[in-house]
Amino acid sequence: MINPKYKRIVLKLSGEALAGPQGFGINPAVIKSIAGQVKEIAEMDVEVAVVVGGGNIWRGKVGSEMGMDRATADYMGMLATVMNSLALQDSLENLGIQTRVQTSIEMRQVAEPYIRRKAIRHLEKKRVVIFAAGTGNPYFSTDTTAALRAAEIEADVILMAKNNVDGVYSADPLKDATAVKYEELSYLDVLKDGLAVMDSTASSLCMDNDIALIVFSIMEEGNIRRAVLGENIGTIVRGK
Hints:
With 240 residues, the protein is of the alpha/beta class. The protein has a single domain, classed as Acetylglutamate kinase-like (Carbamate kinase, 3-Layer(aba) Sandwich). 39% of the residues lie in helices and 20% in strands. The strands form two sheets. Strands 4-3-5-2-1-6-10-11-9 form a nine-stranded mixed beta sheet, with helices on both faces. Helix 2 crosses helix 4, helix 6 packs parallel to helix 8 and helix 7 packs antiparallel against helix 8. The relative contact order is 0.16.
C-alpha cells in the first residue's frame, strides 16, 4: 500500500518547463509527460492543485523593459498562464483525470472564476484544480500565486518543478562550477542570502504561513511522485 507523505499539494510549474528544449511555446511531449506524472499522484488519492507560469509565451518583465506599461505587461502575462492552464487541462482530461481551471480574472466562457471554497470542494472530490491568471493583480508573480493559494487551501507543501536545475544552489550551477547544492534551507536563509528560489514576496508568505517548499527537477520522469512520497530529492525549504 502506497502511503504519500503529503495529502494536498500545490504543484508550481514554470512556463519555461512546458516549452521543453525549444524554450518557447508548449512542447506536446513535455506537457504529456507532466500530465502523466500528475495522473500518477492523483491516483494515489493526493489532492492536486497546480499553478502554471506564462514565461514560455510572455513575460511581463520583458514587456516593461521594452517600455510597455508594467500593469499592462503583467496582465498579458496572466493571459499567457490561462493558455498554459487550458493546455494542461486538456492533457489531463485526455488521460481521464477530471480537471477544473479557475482564473483570478473572470472569463466564464473558458474557466471558472476562482472561489476558494469551490476549489477546496473540487479537491475533496479528487479533481485536479489549476489556478490560472496569477493573483489577478499586476506586480505579483506566479510564485506568489502558488504561496497564496497554498495558504488559502491549506496545502501541505508546494512542489516547485524546475526545468534547468535539480534544487537550490549557492550560485547558478550553469555558470559557476563551484556552486553547492543545498539539501535543506530555511526561508530566512533564502531571503538573507538572496537565493534564486522564489521572489521575496512569495518566500515571506510561505515563511509566515509555515508552508514547506520542495524544489526539484521536472525533467526526470517520476520526480513528482518521489517528492509526494517524501523521498529525498532536490532541496526542501522550511518555514522555520
